[in-house]
Amino acid sequence: MGDIATEGAKGLAATLGIEILEASAERVVARMPVEGNTQPYGILHGGASCVLAETIGSVGSALHAGPGRITMGIEINASHHRSATEGHVTAVATQLHGGRTLTSYEIIITDDRDRRICTARLTCALRDRP
Description:
This protein has 130 residues and is α+β, with helices and mostly antiparallel strands. It is built from three helices and six strands. Helices cover 23% and strands 44% of the residues. The two termini are 24 Å apart.
């Protein structure tokens, strides 16, 4: 997977327990535990889903950008379809657009029973490393 995928699982992603399972510019797969990432009602926090989505979309974008370039998330949206209360959620980011200055990914998050929890879209800007 390389250094970019390893870097993607640091900081906030590590705090939430995000584990990257597969990573390429076209597709990134990760999982995250529900436990520890819930809101007061015991269900998966929508913000945790957004962090998961932005993490793996950004990893894909960085792999697309390549060495000497950086990626910055500029827009994310998410629709939360159902709740998760236990186990893990799995996220799959699929590249929708891979250009010179922008990338876009669709991220689908499912529960352990393969039910869709959330659908997100992330757009990242690509720039030369300063």
